[in-house]
Amino acid sequence: MRKAQAVVEEAARGRLETLAFDREHLWHPYTSMTEPAPVRLVTGARGCELEVDGRWVVDGMSSWWAAIHGYRHPVLDAAVRDQVERFSHVMFGGLTHEPAVTLGRRLVDVTPTGLERVFLADSGSVSVEVAVKMALQYQRGIGRPERRKLLTVRGGYHGDTFHPMSVTDPDGGMHTMWSGLLPEQVFAQVPPRAGAGTGHLESWMLALERQVVRRRDELAAIIVEPLLQGAGGMRHYDSECLRVMRDLADEHGLLLIFDEIATGFGRTGHLFVSELVTPDILCLGKALTGGYLSLAAVLTKDAVARGISGSESGVVMHGPTFMGNPMACAVATASIDLLLASDWPSRVASINERLATGLEPLQELPGVKDVRTVGAVGVVQLDHPVDVVAATDAAVAAGVWLRPFRDLIYTMPPYVIADEELDRLLHGITEAVKAG
Questions:
Q1: CA neighbours within 13 Å on the CB side: how many for 82?
Q2: Average pLDDT of the chain?
Q3: Lowest CB count within 10 Å: 108, 177, 240, 319, which one?
Q4: % of the chain beyond a pLDDT of 70
Q5: Which residues are annotated as a binding site for substrate?
Q6: Where N6-(pyridoxal phosphate)lysine occurs along the chain (predicted)?
Q7: Domain identity same for 325 and 271
Q8: 222, β-bridge pairs
Q9: 163 and 200 belong to one structural domain
Q10: What's the sign of the alpha-carbon dihedral 161, 408, 283, 338?
Q11: Does 172 share its domain with 266?
């Protein structure tokens, strides 16, 4: 008995020491180093649950929208093990390997027709950097070097490196402190919310057309998160907006870039939103590897590749050290195959129905401004900034892990979440809203 107690006490001391070192030395996303927000220690994961501070909680975030199959999936575990037994990494410069070729073939097969050239990047933000470079090099290659700006919409978010920051909302986004240092891009108004009505849609379309016509000689491309804006505010907008962007891009010689890092692989109910409207350049990430390893992909049309080849360098001026990492490529292919072999459309639809039904009553709670869902995404928007610590504490106490931000308490659960776990998740969101 004493021995067991000693083991428990030793484990507790170890956790405290780990957290103490973390607090003193490790930066976390959007967190002060000198006055850090509290963090919790993860010691295990299984299915749709994380072991956090010694208790199992339902992960409502899919580890920032990536772990669509949950944790410790035997198929994905095996893909990583099998590849590491062959080789874990090899440079992609001058070399290739089967995992990269297999993944490239799979991506060309599952994405819309015409997206045939594949650049394997190492993170979502980097994929946007590469897409922007491609657009600028394309314009140079076809003899339009003066076209150096991107048009995007307000309310968007595209990553934390410099060009992605430049096309993130400069006023309401997370990168306002960099105004004046970033490249100045062209911002259209936030697209009208899905279901807002034809009047709002037509007004937005006319304003966008005027902007494009006025700035067309300096614009290289239009870049947006299609259908659902992510970290900029979790807004779901009308798909007709994408068709307007496609038509304007075609009419004025611009490229259309879709950032599907958050929306790709079924999250909105479409395997890719690009099935509705095909872009010239498509960025994928997050769920690409099922949350196992960092990997992103940029797919382009052949015409884009040929335009880039006509620029001064003749090549895409980018080459990450871990480009095409074999382990990441192997698990990405396994994740895609696992998704396609499942009845993911029905599962995403079922999650949506349960989220819509379970979250709708929260509209009546004090402080709630809006409740909305799309695909396997549920959002509660408050009329004030969330008290992140209080909301997180309340969620964990209810057996749920959430990561609110700004005025939003939201969830993007793994697709494999069971109904009982989804009910726990809804309870946790309710408690977070009451506390936040």
A1: 13
A2: 94
A3: 177
A4: 97
A5: 64, 157, 286, 319, 403
A6: 286
A7: yes
A8: 151, 256
A9: yes
A10: positive
A11: yes
How far apart are alpha carbons 50 and 42 in whole angstroms? 7
- 64: exposed, middle or buried (C-beta count within 10 Å: 0-12, 13-18, 19+)? middle
pLDDT of 176 reads: 74
For 97, half-sphere exposure in the C-beta direction (CA atoms, 13 angstrom radius) is: 20
If 0-12 CB within 10 Å is exposed, 13-18 middle and 19+ buried, where does residue 12 land?
Answer: exposed
Between 241 and 178, the higher pLDDT residue: 241
pLDDT tens column, 308-327: 999 998 899 899 999 999 99
The alpha helices in 116-253, defined as continuous H runs, are 124-141, 162-166, 198-215, 240-252
Which residues are catalytically annotated? 30, 157, 259, 286
Asked whether 218 and 185 are in contact (CB, 8 A), the reply is no
Q: How many CB atoms lie within 10 A of CB 250?
A: 11
In the chain, what is the straight-line distance between the N-terminal and C-terminal CA atoms, in Å? 42
Q: Contact at 8 Å (CB) between 389 and 421?
A: no
**Cα 232 to Cα 332: distance, rounded to the nearest angstrom:** 26
pLDDT at 7 over 60: no
Same domain, yes or no, for 307 and 391? no
Q: How many residues does the chain have?
A: 436
Q: State the Cα–Cα distance between residues 159 and 165, nearest whole angstrom.
A: 6
Q: What secondary structure letter does DSSP report for 405?
A: B
Same-domain check for residues 332 and 369: no
* Position 80 confidence tier, pLDDT thresholds 50, 70, 90: very high
CA-only gyration radius of the chain, Å: 22
pLDDT at position 321 is 94
| Residue 436 pLDDT grade (very low, low, confident, very high; cuts 50, 70, 90) | confident
Is the same domain home to 183 and 327?
Answer: yes
Closest-CA residue to 331 (of 376, 361, 358, 294): 294
| Contact present, 205 and 212 (Cβ < 8 Å) | no
How many separate domains does the chain show? 2
Are residues 324 and 259 located together in one domain of the fold?
yes
Q: Residue 68 corresponds to which tokens in the numbers above?
A: 């669509």
* Strand 49-52 to 42-46 pairing: antiparallel
- Record the pTM: 0.95
Identify whether residues 254 and 361 lie together within a single domain.
no
Q: How far is CA 253 from CA 61, 282, 325, 397, in A?
A: 39, 17, 35, 54
Instruction: Detail the residues annotated as belonging to a binding site for pyridoxal 5'-phosphate.
Output: 124-125, 259, 320-321
- Domain-located, residue 24: no
